[in-house]
Backbone:
């Protein structure tokens, strides 16, 4: 998949509505270093330097969906404990996620604590109860799911075999979804895929597929044949099989199949990569992307997150960049001359500026909204040194060239120019736009360059900020 196709697909899925039901958990990370062995036993002593926590399981699926621009409703159960409250607080800080939390006082919130020494995992400690929720809690889950179903474009069942979606509940979830005409994507954990009969798409890994006993060989053809046979047997349209270092394979019930080779990338941590795959696949399908292209997009997104630490997520800017976006012309004389050509043709020129470090759904909303109000949209991009002045050391996460390369792939961005100054005043003077678009709670008279556009008979227009999307949040979640 080329970068332009990836960008168009990511734009198409903005604001799609995804309903997720499954097992949520809290992922904790205890980081430190090891410099000595305990005198009490031959084990290393981890000297703690940092503790972080992230939403895991179905909650990480929800986070991945929100990070690419979907609106998410998540239905799940937690315990009445500090971990459950932490999961709710983490999800509650993201305005794109509506968490329907059902509290079961008789079970703990599933918690996975990973101990890491100098970035390498040395131990994992799990706290959980995996028995199925009782009938009362199960009915609450089902009723809550049913109430949220009508507004959904697509349903995800994120089954981690922790009891929130037990085998007894899955047929009801599938039945309600099918009756409502919804596409259902399932991340399976049960060895009998018959439990998910009637789902639209399953996303097993190869080990999970082998547990069915239907795949004997190891060639792509044999894997595809087995997956297609299972899809037919269980009334499914297709299966997406993740193959680790070999990428992904999409097999249809009609016998057709497609393979996406793994993207070359240094693998740091595979935690949560499957969550990224199902989120990207589901979001793309909800946005009208065909299954083969959705698989390619999921493959790219997975290559982004495995290079990060912990249960990470991928932003649209990172996905577009990983797809191979080429750097566009960035110099002022080129864009000043181009703007003059547009003006000579009677076109109105819009201008927006910012750091756009890790292009996210909030950025996409701003630029798409701006483009609807002008004929041509050009973006002023803070240089790397300018970003450092504004955001501090460690920023930007992506170089100006990479940020520009991702941005120019968006179908509504016509040009990108980099400026090194503290403000874009000199760039606005050179380009002479008819409109300046700014996000947030700015006053038009306080926007840099407003006097220039007003002298041309133009105006400054403020576009409301979308939700709680933040480059700073994205960057802090990947370290």
Residues:
């Amino acid at each position: 998949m080329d970068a332009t196709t990836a960008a168009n697909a990511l734009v198409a899925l903005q604001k799609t509505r995804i309903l997720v039901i499954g097992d949520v958990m809290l992922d904790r990370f205890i980081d430190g270093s090891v410099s000595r062995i305990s005198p009490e036993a031959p084990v290393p002593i981890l000297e703690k330097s940092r503790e972080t926590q992230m939403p895991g399981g179905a909650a990480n699926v929800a986070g991945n969906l929100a990070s690419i621009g979907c609106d998410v409703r998540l239905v799940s159960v937690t315990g009445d404990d500090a971990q459950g409250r932490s999961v709710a607080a983490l999800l509650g800080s993201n305005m794109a996620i509506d968490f329907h939390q059902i509290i079961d006082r008789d079970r703990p919130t599933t918690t996975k604590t990973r101990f890491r020494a100098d970035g390498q995992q040395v131990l994992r400690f799990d706290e959980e109860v995996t028995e199925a929720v009782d009938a009362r809690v199960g009915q609450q889950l089902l009723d809550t799911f049913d109430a949220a179903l009508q507004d959904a474009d697509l349903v995800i069942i994120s089954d981690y075999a922790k009891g929130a979606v037990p085998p007894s509940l899955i047929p009801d979830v599938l039945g309600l979804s099918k009756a409502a005409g919804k596409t259902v994507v399932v991340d399976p954990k049960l060895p009998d895929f018959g439990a998910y009969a009637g789902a639209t798409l399953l996303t097993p890994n190869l080990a999970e597929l082998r547990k069915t006993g239907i795949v004997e060989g190891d060639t792509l053809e044999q894997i595809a044949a087995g997956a297609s046979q299972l899809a037919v047997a269980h009334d499914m349209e297709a299966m997406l099989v993740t193959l680790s270092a070999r990428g992904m394979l999409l097999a249809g019930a009609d016998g057709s199949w497609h393979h996406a080779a793994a993207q070359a990338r240094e693998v740091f941590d595979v935690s949560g990569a499957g969550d990224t795959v199902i989120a990207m696949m589901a979001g793309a399908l909800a946005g009208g992307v065909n299954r083969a292209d959705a698989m390619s997009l999921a493959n790219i997104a997975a290559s982004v997150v495995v290079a990060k630490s912990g249960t990470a997520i991928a932003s649209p800017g990172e996905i577009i960049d990983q797809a191979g976006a080429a750097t566009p012309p960035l110099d002022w004389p080129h864009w000043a001359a181009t703007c003059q050509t547009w003006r000579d043709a009677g076109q109105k020129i819009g201008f927006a500026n910012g750091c756009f470090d890790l292009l996210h759904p909030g950025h996409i909303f701003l630029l798409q909204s701006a483009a609807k109000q002008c004929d041509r949209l050009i973006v002023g991009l803070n240089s790397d040194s300018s970003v450092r002045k504004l955001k501090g050391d460690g920023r930007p996460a992506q170089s100006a060239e990479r940020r520009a390369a991702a941005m120019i792939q968006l179908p509504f961005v016509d040009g990108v120019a980099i400026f090194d100054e503290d403000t874009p005043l000199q760039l606005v003077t050179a380009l002479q736009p008819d409109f300046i678009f700014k996000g947030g709670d700015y006053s038009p008279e306080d926007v840099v360059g407003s006097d220039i556009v007003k002298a041309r008979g133009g105006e400054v227009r403020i576009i409301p900020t979308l939700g709680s999307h933040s480059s700073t949040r994205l960057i802090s979640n990947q370290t």
The first helix runs from residue 3 to 12. The domain at 332-476 is CATH 3.40.50.620 (Rossmann fold). The mean pLDDT is 93.
